[in-house]
Amino acid sequence: MNNFPRMHVSLYVSDIEKSVNFYTQFFGVEPVKVKPGYAKYILDKPSLIISFVQNSERVQSNFGHLGFQVETEEDLMIQQLLAKKHGLIAKEEKGVGCCYAKQDKFWVNDPDGVQWEVYYFHEDVEFNDPHYETASEEESAKACCIAA
Predict the structure, then answer these.
(1) Which of 11, 48, 113, 138 has the most CB within a 10 Å radius?
(2) pTM of the predicted model, to two decimals?
(3) Which residue ranges form the domains of the chain, and what is each CATH number?
(4) How large is the average pLDDT for residues 126-140?
(5) How many Å apart are CA 19 and CA 23, to the nearest integer?
(6) Rounded to 5 degrees, what are φ and ψ at 58?
(7) What percent of the chain has pLDDT over 90?
(8) Which parts of 28-136 fold into alpha helices (H)?
């Protein structure tokens, strides 16, 4: 039984118009509600309600990142082509060992710098990318999951 059929996320943004333009392109759907200083999207797959509240003083610079896992390599390619079409891609990675998993992924950054990772999971691995092996354990974990 799924006790949580849909996830809700609310993010503070500095400019609602820029955020609506970005997320409409990134999600590929129009918002279901737009009010002064507010916008909401409802995504069916993944099942997510995400809202944006304009409040530049509350935008978090140390937030981390959000992401979507796609089901197939073809799904990743389709999402990547759409993001490229809109000029959204910040970084692309193929076959990386990140967070002890082999993944293909790309990253986008919203107008406030919130990083989104879109990835295809190949398999669990016992290592992080060799690029991160020289870093301390804490630095490696931070570096692996950001679009530097």
Answers:
(1) 11
(2) 0.79
(3) 1-56 (3.10.180.10), 64-148 (3.10.180.10)
(4) 55
(5) 6
(6) -105, 0
(7) 68
(8) 73-85
